[in-house]
Write a structure and sequence with these properties.
YbaK protein; five-stranded mixed sheet
Length: 165
């Protein structure tokens, strides 16, 4: 990703957060080699670092699923929540076309296509974190946000959609 593309991506993220009235913080970080290292660089525990997955329904529509570190998507659970029989992870090229973010930087903020957002219920287990980390559209930055602000800003659905890894 060129500096121009990263700058454009972060501008989209910031403008979208502002439009949604969701306070966010962009945090510069180095590349990480593990979940633990990425969480440490962003000042959160691994369970508060959310993977943003783009999922494709059989009708060629997409949704975002936000899953905490240390957990994996449970296909049966998310199909039940979405009331669909078939879901898939699109290839990197399709995810890029939908979001205009490369894998590893995908975030619902500033996505080229506005998609429904599902957040795993485990994020809201007691105690609820003051902030969670997400991709920022740029590999050298993370995004910090209050999880309830994230729900409110996207009218997100909170659902049990994961299991421990």
């Amino acid at each position: 990703m060129s500096d121009l593309n990263a700058s454009e991506a972060m501008t989209r993220v910031l403008l979208d957060a502002q439009r949604r009235a969701v306070p966010i913080e962009l945090v510069p970080r180095q590349a990480a080699r593990s979940l633990q290292e990425a969480a440490q660089l962003l000042g959160v525990i691994p369970e508060h670092l959310l993977k943003t997955l783009v999922l494709k329904r059989s009708d060629d529509t997409f949704v975002f699923a936000l899953i905490p570190g240390g957990r994996k998507l449970d296909w049966a659970k998310i199909r039940a929540v979405l009331q669909v029989n078939k879901l898939s992870l699109p290839d990197a090229e399709t995810a890029l076309a939908v979001t205009h973010f490369v894998r590893g930087t995908i975030t619902p903020f500033g996505s080229h296509t506005v998609l429904p957002v599902l957040i795993d219920a485990s994020v809201f287990a007691n105690p609820v974190p003051a902030r969670v980390a997400l991709g920022s559209g740029d590999p050298l930055h993370g995004l910090l946000v209050n999880p309830q602000d994230l729900v409110n800003g996207f009218e997100a659905t909170i659902a049990d959609i994961s299991t421990p890894e």
